[in-house]
Amino acid sequence: MRLWLSLTIDEDDIVKPLPNLDFRIIQGNSLIEEFDGINLDIVLETGSQQELSISSDEKNENIQELYKLQKTFFNETDLETKQKIIKKINKLYYSIIKNEIENKISVNFEKKKKLLLNLNNFESVNLENNFMPWQLRFFDVFLEKKGFDIILANPPYNREKDFAEMFEPVNKSNFGQKYHSGKMNFWYYFLHKAIDKTNDNAIISFITSRYWLASSGAKSLIKRIKENLFFIDVLDIGKVKIFDNVIGQHIITTYSKRKIENFTYKKVSNNTNDIFANKNTDNLEIEFFNQNEIYKNNQINFEKNIISYDNKYEILNNLFSTSTGIQESPDKINKKQLTKLPNKNINIGDGVFVLRDDEIKKLNLKKDERNVLKKYLELSDVEKYKINYSKNCIIYTSIDVINKIKKKEYINLKLHLDKFKKYITSSNAPYGLHRPRNENYFIEPKIIFKCMFLKPSFTFDDSGFYLGFSFISIIQKSSLDLKYLL
Questions:
Q1: 269-306: pLDDT as tens digits
Q2: How far apart are CA 444 and CA 316, in angstroms?
Q3: In 365-395, which positions are buried (b, 16+ CB within 10 angstroms) versus exposed (e)?
Q4: Got the DSSP string for 457-477?
Q5: pLDDT tens-digit map of 111-152
Q6: Rounded to 5 degrees, what are φ and ψ at 98?
Q7: Cβ atoms of 159 and 218 closer than 8 Å
Q8: CA gap 229, 200 in Å, rounded
Q9: What is the pTM of this model?
């Protein structure tokens, strides 16, 4: 209706009135084609093998009649005739589903009786139902075109762990059992359905959240896209706000069922003003991709490679071992902790597991206790190819060290950690680090870098520095040299 109204504004000639849309605007659960377990993806039989019914003559006659009535009704203008056709269509709709239930081989008499009683609730094809028999609703589409030419969708973006009730009826259906996958988003089902219900020349266009491109839960969906669809164009809206009440980042993907070698990718930065531009602007970045180059490791990647690897590359973890740094919990006292638990003898920035040089001197540690301290790097200590050690140390507490602290063999360390006992949130509290990590990642020669950086700042270390959770450590696993990797 809205499309028709918008067309009339720019039309000089008299616009034809809309046809009858009673059987074109349908409400229902478009993902389910079953009625109480009976498959209603009903097809007109043309000699192909069918499991659905014992006798198909009556069904085929009803379907042919339904097809003719739907075509007639579409452009009928006489009100009385329209009402008569609507009654006939509703009667045929009921009869076809009834026939399907009665002649289902695998359903016993009692189940059929129950199903037929439930069926009496559906008095009209126009009522909203919890299923959608696509071929029954749109027989002309499937008989004439073998499916839809175009499907446009703005499906709901919901995760299963937050919307289990929404997923449940679909998951139980044959369709859901075929396409459900762990960590999926509800909208994935709609693209699967669109692929199923379109013909071989179709166009499909979806606006969705963009997180699926690199999601492990979209693995099977991405595989199906790769096997069945070709991108025509992609509009990456990203963080630009387009829906008033919807958070997240969005993307519009338009696909073709017909083979297309290359496609256009557009990414906007500030608004959607330039989306139809054919060249880069301050707000719009345009790239051109081949279909095959975007699929990498079960993900879709629209970042343009600077170097062409020709698939002759190796995964980093096959050649080197990597780990994040130590999670202390906490390294030092922060403002939030002190606000929650005020203490006049403790200040913001006081070291708990990570100590400055001046704090270490005040502890009067014995020689054995000093051996527990390990040289520790702060984020500000590391630059590209360079380490500026600020003389901080971490109390690296292995199980053996924890036991010695408990037994008061390391009494000065115990007194220090007991002072901060209320602030230590480690799962190994009060004397153990939260995640100490394998020491090999610190004592062996390694490449270290910050987890988050504006500019690459990788560097080599063979001095045994220990690292916090904000760093990654890479150590050697194969014959390839770390300095070569660096």
A1: 888 888 888 899 989 999 999 998 899 888 999 987 66
A2: 18
A3: beeebeebbbebbbeebbeeeeeeeeebbbb
A4: --EEE-S--EEBTTEEEEEE-
A5: 777 777 777 655 555 566 678 888 888 888 888 889 999 999
A6: -60, -45
A7: no
A8: 10
A9: 0.62
